[in-house]
């Protein structure tokens, strides 16, 4: 809670406006009913502070003010809330950027989507419907308790006791009883999202292996679990509401009883008794808002917890700031050792590799021996545990991340295409690429002719053709993207695994032709692919062998 409040600091002045107008708004509303009782008292001949006409005039003013004050309170309150949601989203995206790519690889995407969308959205409850209402309830109740005290100290005392029960005791007990339910619900919600997303992604496998019924069953079970959690929360909400209402009724009865006793003992007159009862009965609005709040708070804190977990996650590598360019000359891997967190065995050890500018290096080895990992270490997706990776005599850990990314391009086993036009997908390689440059890159990657056959050529949206693109076509688009990026170091992780021999030969020729002065590091199982390389390195027994 304190962490959520800290984020609010820059918006304190607006929060003050929300609170002040909220208090005045509630006082205006309470004044309307109380003055109503005064007006009636005057009509039936009781000794009241205001005449019927005076009370009516004040009621009209209060009614108009109530609307205006409420509007300003809600407007400023929600302004704060949505401003903060924007700040929080920004923080999460920044955190995700820092966690990418290595730490995000292992995160469940459905859960991440839940945090970014619904979890952050729910924090609106805290900022627009929690902090201000608490302050408003304390201030409004204090004013009313004081007014009741001036009528008679007993009334003031009764008010304080019942305000505390409704506004503090019930919410605290309620949140203690139900704090787990909110967290469990949010977690279950994230898990259900993840499972659904997973099922959609793997729909082909699900259908192919007849897993549909089983998956559907699991989805239904997940939904049932979600409903069960929600039921617990709703039952809890109902119980709290009932307790609150009963407490208010008791408060009114106690005031009535005290009023009658005080009237009988001639301490106060009948008009004062009526005003005290109406004033107390109509003043629970702000405190009731607090008792309802605890239900939402359970959700809110669970959401905040999940959000802070992401913000607090330490990235696998620390980003290096800076705008300088990198002169990609030679790469030196020295006595390097690496082990994945959570894995027992050291995956790569005593790794020494020297790559000169313009070298074409093939990395060969059995599946799972760590070839892709070696590439990832040269791209600094992970930091090495021992030794170093150096580029032009600079430790990769000191090279500005932007410069490092600019100097390297990657074609991986699976090219990811965004739901955007082919042109924009390619432009990721070079944001300001001209049409000619894009066509040139595609010709080199042997994908230009294919793009020409699409309904809108380069302007065709990948989403429209989506899964109709073959893996080879996707791969060639990935290679075109890398050509466009035109980096000094081309990292190719099985770039031709999805291509037929004809296409493979054409692309390899193109890669060789286009990368005369460039350094290439290629992982491939195919001899035909590694034939363009002049150096071969074998990953064996967790280390490198050179022949
Ligand atoms: N993020 C990760 N966390 C933990 N272990 C990982 C992670 N990524 C890869 N591994 C493990 O590290 C080992 C090496 O993986 P890597 O992808 O580098 O192998 P590879 O030689 O490229 O295999 P392939 O030829 O099949 O692509 C594997 O056992 C893999 O399960």
From TrEMBL:
Residues 17-299 form the ABC transmembrane type-1 domain. It is found in: Cell membrane. GO terms for cellular component: plasma membrane. One of its GO terms (biological process) is cell redox homeostasis. It comes from the Bacteria. Residues 331-547 form the ABC transporter domain. Pfam families: ABC_membrane, ABC_tran. Keywords: ATP-binding, Cell membrane, Hydrolase, Membrane, Nucleotide-binding, Protease, Thiol protease, Transmembrane, Transmembrane helix, Transport. It is a multi-pass membrane protein. This is Thiol reductant ABC exporter subunit CydC. It comes from Romboutsia weinsteinii. The gene is cydC.
């Amino acid at each position: 809670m304190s962490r959520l409040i800290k984020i609010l600091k820059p918006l304190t002045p607006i929060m003050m406006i929300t609170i002040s107008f909220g208090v005045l708004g509630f006082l205006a509303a309470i004044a309307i009913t109380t003055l109503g009782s005064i007006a009636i008292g005057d009509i039936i001949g009781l000794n009241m502070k205001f005449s019927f006409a005076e009370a009516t005039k004040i009621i009209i003013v209060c009614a108009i003010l109530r609307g205006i004050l409420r509007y300003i309170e809600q407007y400023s309150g929600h302004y704060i809330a949505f401003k903060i949601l924007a700040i929080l989203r920004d923080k999460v995206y920044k955190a995700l950027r820092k966690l990418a790519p290595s730490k995000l690889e292992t995160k469940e995407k459905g859960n991440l989507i839940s945090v970014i969308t619904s979890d952050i959205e729910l924090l609106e409850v805290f900022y627009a419907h929690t902090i201000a209402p608490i302050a408003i309830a304390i201030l409004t109740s204090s004013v009313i308790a004081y007014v009741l005290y001036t009528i008679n100290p007993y009334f003031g005392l009764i008010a304080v006791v019942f305000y505390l029960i409704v506004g503090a005791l019930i919410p605290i007990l309620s949140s203690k009883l139900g704090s787990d339910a909110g967290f469990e619900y949010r977690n279950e919600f994230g898990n259900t999202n993840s499972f659904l997303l997973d099922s959609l992604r793997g729909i082909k496998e699900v259908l192919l292996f007849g897993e549909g019924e089983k998956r559907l069953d699991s989805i239904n079970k997940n939904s049932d679990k979600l409903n069960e959690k929600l039921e617990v929360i709703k039952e809890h909400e109902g119980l709290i509401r009932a307790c609150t209402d009963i407490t208010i009724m008791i408060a009114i009865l106690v005031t009535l009883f005290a009023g009658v006793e005080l009237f009988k003992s001639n301490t106060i007159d009948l008009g004062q008794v009526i005003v005290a009862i109406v004033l107390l009965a109509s003043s629970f609005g702000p405190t009731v808002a607090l008792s309802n709040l605890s239900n939402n708070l359970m959700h809110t804190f669970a959401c905040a917890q999940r959000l802070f977990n992401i913000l607090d996650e330490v990235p696998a590598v620390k980003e290096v700031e800076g705008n300088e360019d990198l002169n990609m000359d030679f790469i030196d891997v020295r006595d390097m050792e690496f082990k994945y967190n959570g894995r027992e065995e050291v995956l790569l050890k005593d790794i020494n590799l020297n790559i000169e500018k313009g070298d074409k290096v093939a990395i060969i080895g059995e599946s799972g021996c760590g070839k892709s990992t070696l590439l990832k270490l040269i791209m600094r997706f992970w930091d090495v545990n021992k030794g170093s990776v150096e580029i032009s005599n600079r430790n990769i850990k000191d090279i500005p991340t932007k410069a490092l990314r600019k100097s390297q391009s990657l074609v991986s086993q699976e090219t990811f295409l965004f739901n955007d036009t082919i042109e924009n997908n390619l432009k990721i390689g070079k944001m300001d690429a001209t049409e000619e440059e894009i066509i040139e890159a595609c010709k080199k990657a042997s994908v230009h002719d294919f793009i020409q056959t699409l309904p809108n050529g380069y302007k065709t949206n990948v989403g429209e053709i989506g899964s109709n693109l073959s893996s080879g076509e996707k791969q060639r688009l990935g290679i075109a993207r890398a050509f466009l990026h035109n980096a000094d170091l081309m990292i190719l992780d099985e770039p031709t695994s999805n291509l037929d021999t004809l296409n493979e030969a054409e692309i390899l020729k193109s890669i060789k032709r286009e990368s005369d002065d460039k350094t290439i590091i290629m992982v491939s199982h195919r001899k035909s692919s590694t034939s363009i390389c002049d150096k071969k390195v074998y990953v064996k027994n967790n280390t490198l062998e050179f022949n």
